[in-house]
Amino acid sequence: SWQIINNISEFKKLGTKILVGHSTKSFLTSPNKKATARDPETVDVSKQLAAMGVDYLRIHNIKLHQQEFKKTYCP
User: Fold this and answer.
1) 11: exposed, middle or buried (C-beta count within 10 Å: 0-12, 13-18, 19+)?
2) Sign of the four-CA dihedral 32, 54, 17, 7
3) How many angstroms separate the CA atoms of 15 and 71, rounded?
4) What is the DSSP letter of 20?
5) What pLDDT digit, counting tens, does each position of 19-36 carry?
6) Do the bridges between strand 19-20 and strand 56-57 make them parallel or antiparallel, or are there none, so unpaired?
7) C-alpha closest to that of 45 among 30, 63, 29, 32
């Protein structure tokens, strides 16, 4: 999963829209951590993916993402 995320630029070269469904996945932290507790890590990766030009992010906690993206993109 990290290899795919770290190589998004290679997929962007294909000229197609990119969707990443990384939200609350176990690879983000310890697999023993509950999925709902992985929201902060999900937001961090979402911001990185947005900066890399990913077109769509499949996420669970929309409200948290809205709050965090407003801080980053609409200070």
Assistant:
1) middle
2) negative
3) 30
4) E
5) 999 999 989 988 788 888
6) parallel
7) 29
